[in-house]
Amino acid sequence: MIEPIGNQYIVARPVYSANAFGEEHKKKQRHHKTFLDHLKECCSCSTQKAKKIALSLFPIASWLPAYQIKEWLLSDIVSGISTGLVAVLQGLAFALLVTVPPSYGLYAAFFPILVYFFLGTSKHISVGPFPVLSMMVGAIVVKVTPSVSTAALEISNSSMSNYSSTDEYKVMVAATVTVLSGIIQLLMGVLRFGFVVIYLSESLISGFTTAAAVHVLVSQLKFMLQLSVPAHTDPFSIFKVLNSVFTQIEKTNIADLLTSLIILLIVFVVKEINQRYKAKLPVPIPIELIMTVIATGVSYGFDFENRFKVAVVGEMNRGFQPPIAPDMQIFQETLGDSFGIAIVGFMVAFSVASVYSLKYDYPIDGNQELIALGLSNIFTGSFKGFAASTALSRSGVQESTGGKTQIAGILSAIIVLIVILALGFLLEPLQKSVLAALALGNLKGMLMQFTEIRRLWRKDKYDCLIWIMTFIFAIVLGLGLGLAASVAFQLLTIVFRTQFPKCSTLANVGRSNIYKNKKDYSDMHEPEGVKIFRCPAPIYFANIQFFKQKLIDAVGFNPLQILRKRNKALKKIRKLQKKGLLQVTPKGFIYTNDGFKDSDDEMDNNEIEELDQPINTTDLPFQIDWNTDFPLNISVPKISLHSLILDFSAVSFLDISSMRGLKTILQEFIRINVDVYVVGSDDDFIEKLAQCEFFDDEVKDSIFFLTIHDAVLHIWMKKDYNVSKFNPSQEKEMKFDFTINTNGGLRNRECQVPDETKF
After folding, report:
1. Please, where are the H alpha helices in 44-164?
2. Residue pLDDT, tens place only, 581-615
3. Which of 485, 496, 554, 616 can pair with 473 through a Cys bridge, CB separation 3.0 to 4.6 Å?
4. What is the C-alpha end-to-end distance of the chain, expressed in Å?
5. 696-732: per-residue pLDDT in tens?
6. Are residues 271 and 223 in the same domain?
7. Does any domain span residue 729?
8. pTM more than 0.90
9. Closest listed residue to residue 300, CA positions, set 406, 425, 403
């Protein structure tokens, strides 16, 4: 019964152990589905289920019939045109990261949108090239290409009017890797592996993208300075690239350097204006488009290519390339790297899609996103494009310019299509250094994530450590190995958190039924002779010894040592009692002969095992109070603890190894007359212990209580009332019912109130 009184309440109920609660409140019989049941349900078919599957595979069938033409079409048109122009420039710029001719970046900006329009679940992300993904594909291209090249590979910055066999092979490698990563994503989606993204924390994603931005920055230096830099893909490659750049710094093309710096400065300033005044601007200023038009016109008008020997985009392929079949040999060489690309691509796209789904309140499906991205990449790779995900800046443009649905996405694809078929030649005079500067202009947000370190350090030092180590791994080992090492380190931090949990000793706050860490509050009351110990993590093979040590520290003694000393003392008492040298009085033991000496020689293993057994005094004509004074030659530590409460409300599971260790710990306390109680455990937890034969004559299932306060009240009744207030027959008939007074204290509704000085 609960009686509210203002902002306080009175609770009247019995003191419940887990067994008593189970007897009074019977559990429902529930049928738990077996694997066969799930298989039958999965394989069953009905009209409704078929319709649901069809709508989930083709989300366009759900949102397109509900499209509001009058309200949304104009916004989608404006958004589509703006996003399409950005997609064209980013496609050209990110192609440099893949080390393929820029025109192939347009294919990567066009084909993914077509597939995602029909299969994607997000209404706002813009699918296409992403700098981090392009960098990862480029690293694979550089790694694989030298193995078939007849000469050492060097990145050429000259105009690519005639593609060499090396260029064609690089396109083949990029396309094959894209198809393979798409197949991996498709298989993961079909097998419902969308949950894999949960293993990539926000801190890991932030640290990884920041490191990738640094890689992109370094990779673009050769275009900004127009230097011939050998490719490196092994660990420490970023430092080797920097070394190559600085050893050739005197060969810098000043025209390219000045152009890129001017473009970069203007882009940063205008992007900052767009960010600060986004509420007042109807649409963001399309600075990338403006600078591209100006830079192309200036380069063409003043003939920069011939006068200053700058590197330009060169001939742009008009129209589409015929589809190609992936190279199976490249499949074998790039399987591991392609898996990393598949995971990172999905991770980025799903993260951005989740932000917009929460903002606009519509659902997204991780498994369907994998299918959509997988088929997008397979389709794109077949037409010589490279891996796609979503660029944060491009999606931001699509959303901020009023995009409502993927109609804006398909319109942006039309803009890219127009450039591919008709307007591509206008970009031929454009300097590559301008594209490099535009690519770096999109990295500002990623590089600014360095500020995350301070925020994470204040919130959670483990998250901060994950960010730092992810950044270091990705910088030093490269993006592929760095991601794998970062995930492994992140999982290792989870082990550390559970292996070394912050255990605490609890006490009563303000004489109420609330128990908190006794170090955190001033008005704390610890029940006399009772220790309440809380473990806030699962207990398993790796932390059971840590748990035991923390428990020993909390109670102030090692129960096994106390047990051994008591058994050893008991052996001496038996010898003295048999010789008639020991008398028992109401005040304690009296030793009648000071000449008796007992051997303290080192014991063998069998004798030690005997000392670890339960204390048995049935053969003695008297009972032993282990806290009394013993003769001088018998030393037994005194302990005031009579009850130990273990708060397992945060312990979600035990493994077999930890069960054995926990049972040993409980037995050691029980054998020295310390009653042990476990509170807050789930029913499934107790059932698992029973199935593993955890309980016996010493460790019984009656030690489990619902709450800490139930256990404390049970101890009061057992130690106070059972001894001094009632005889055994009265105790069985009496039902104790404690309530909370309105002043927060405790009172007994039917019996004498316990002495609160013991609390």
Report:
1. 47-57, 60-63, 69-98, 103-119, 131-144
2. 766 665 555 555 555 555 555 555 666 677 778 88
3. 485
4. 25
5. 999 999 999 999 999 999 998 887 644 334 444 444 4
6. yes
7. no
8. no
9. 425
